[in-house]
Design a protein that fits this description.
Layout lengths: L3 H15 L4 H11 E12 L3 E2 L3 E2 L3 E28 L6 E7 L8 E7 L5 E25 L1
Antiparallel strand pairs: 1-7, 2-7, 3-7, 4-5, 4-6, 4-7
Length: 145
């Protein structure tokens, strides 16, 4: 498995390609101006998930998060994602307003923006259904200070 930078880069390539965008331009601008990390890397999920902690000590201003859900299978599917922050990376609280819309079918991409209140940020998801499984990737970013 590659490092986080490789993981994020590969996911951005896929997103850019699917939208007919120039990845070179996107990557140059992002690398120079933003801190971008993967909270969840292409995880096949059958249950709730606490994403990896992302450290934004060198970030400033508005954060963004892109939640990408690929294939989903099962029945009565309900997937919800939200962002949480933490001062120490151990005790987590929901970030007000940093919630993704309910997802009930495959191939869903959503991006939200929010203001974090603490140094660390992560994605948290609830996944309910019968014999459910979903592919999930989450990318979080913030402008460099």
């Amino acid at each position: 498995m590659g490092n986080r930078r490789d993981i994020v880069g590969n996911r951005l390539r896929q997103i850019a390609s699917s939208r007919g965008l120039s990845l070179g331009l996107i990557m140059c601008n992002i690398a120079a101006d933003y801190i971008v990390q993967a909270s969840v890397n292409n995880a096949a999920r059958e249950e709730n998930l606490e994403g990896d902690s992302c450290d934004f000590a060198l970030g400033t201003g508005l954060c963004f998060c892109t939640q990408v859900i690929g294939s989903m299978s099962g029945s009565l599917l309900e997937f919800t994602g939200k962002m949480q922050d933490s001062a120490d990376g151990n005790l987590w609280e929901d970030i007000p307003g940093a919630v993704f819309s309910l997802v009930t079918s495959s191939n869903n991409l959503q991006t939200i923006s929010f203001n974090r209140r603490a140094r660390y940020v992560r994605h948290f998801s609830n996944f309910n259904g019968i014999s459910q499984i979903a592919a999930l990737t989450v990318i979080v970013g913030q402008k460099r200070a």
